[in-house]
Amino acid sequence: MKDALRHSRFEPAFQPLVDMSNGLVVGFEVLARWVDPALPAIGPVHFIPAAERYGLIGPLTRQILRKGCTEALQFPGEPILAFNLSPIQFRDPDLFDFVIAVIEPTGFPLRRVHIEMTESALTGDDGVALATVQRFKSVGIGVALDDFGTGFASLTRLHAFPFETLKIDASFVQTMETDPGSRKIVASVIGLGQSLGMTIVAEGVETEQQATILRRLGCDIAQGWLFGKPAAALEIVRSLPSPTGGIQRKSTRVSPLQRFHQLEALYKDAPIALGFADLDLSYVSVNDRLAQILGRPAADIVGHPITEKLPARHKLAMTRLLQRIIDRRSIKSHEYSDGAMARSYLISCQCVCDDVGDAIGLSITAIDITQRKAAQVALKADEEHFRRSVELSPNVAWAAKPSGEVDYMSPALGIGEASAMADRIADWYARMHEQDRARVRQEWLAWLPSQRPFSTQFRIKWNDGEWRWVLSRAKPFFNSRGQLERWYGVISDISDQKILEATVAQMASLPQENAQAAQILKLFR
Description:
Elements: H1 2-6, E1 10-19, E2 25-34, H2 44-53, H3 57-72, E3 80-84, H4 95-103, E4 113-118, H5 127-138, E5 142-148, H6 155-160, E6 165-168, H7 170-173, H8 180-195, E7 199-202, H9 208-217, E8 221-222, H10 233-239, H11 256-269, E9 273-277, E10 283-286, H12 288-294, H13 312-328, E11 331-338, E12 343-353, E13 359-368, H14 370-392, E14 396-400, E15 406-409, H15 421-431, H16 434-447, E16 454-461, E17 467-478, E18 484-493, H17 495-508, H18 515-524
Parallel strand pairs: 2-3, 3-4, 4-5, 5-6, 6-7, 7-8
Antiparallel strand pairs: 1-2, 1-8, 9-10, 9-13, 11-12, 12-13, 14-15, 14-18, 16-17, 17-18
């Protein structure tokens, strides 16, 4: 290792830090690589502890800091560089002077430098470490707490140190998809860090599913093989698609704490009844509207089973229903009427799942539909009145789509009384005289483009087997945008009128000497 340091065989490798909101590279973590063709590959997990053990961590850090800052000057944009320092180094009161003395000659801006320290640097007397961190902050260098959750950092130290960034250890990130506990830890760390105004970085992201979970939880920055492996500076320059920007000093995302209080306000004042139950089918929370429906104070409902007040004969059936909703990850709605209160409700139960689809509880909503039910009853009565009126009318109402396809025909005069609308319409077409059927259809289709009122006559067979003449008229209906929406029509029996017309025509053909016929003809004319 001494020989490698003497011949400058430690090189920086740059791993991208990616903004989760837009996928852009905002910086790089600079990692040390021992490059020696004469030796087998030696990973940092081996040579870093050796450097610490033999007092060589200082020279190694100097070499990576100097090369990393110098090579990053050719990167487009203003990416930040994050360097890991050993916990041993934070015990050195001269660490700040050492870092500044290495970076400043390279010309790399101090404001784009981040120093990462692990939790183990905070054990014991951390007065020296705190003073060093404060000096870093005073010149614009950011400080991150690395591998959070794997060491011994107390919340007191987390609050005392002016960290700008909190990094979630890769061990939690890489097990989120299969371990609910890891997901809870990651969500808690994100909420904790953002509540303290920190930027959250997730390490070790390897799959799109992990990235999706992190975005939904509100994570700010991610790094891992999904976004890019550590690479040499020349490779980074060739692969960067566009100039990069730095990490925001403070997260602009809504923190879980803010989101919690926002949802709490919505939950409390929602115009509908809301509740949540755990997988044991016991209420975890209810708002005042649901408590009012259930007829008990919210404090007397939380912690009690959903089926607690149900009659014994209904408890088992309700438990099975709710369990099926959970097992099938489905939603079920049911109308419920409270006879005592004369109210009606639409109650829905929906399985709530986490980011990987594991069930975590039941969401319960109840909407007061009393007025809607009353309106439905009134509307049904009106519809019944209208239907009876149409059936008693001597005319037949019909309607058609803009394309001309008839889709409604009212029953009247004993014709077309089939219950199914399609059968009723087919019955009308079947009763039309075969000489009129094709003619009327051609007239109708030819008239449609004009979008003007339509009128035609044809013969139809009544139930008594008699052929009668009818007049069919239709008017177009246009919506507010002037577009044809429907045709509305009516069919009237004109058989008597046709007989009268035939009689008049016959009388007109009689000799004019017939005074009586002439007088009658004059009267009709």
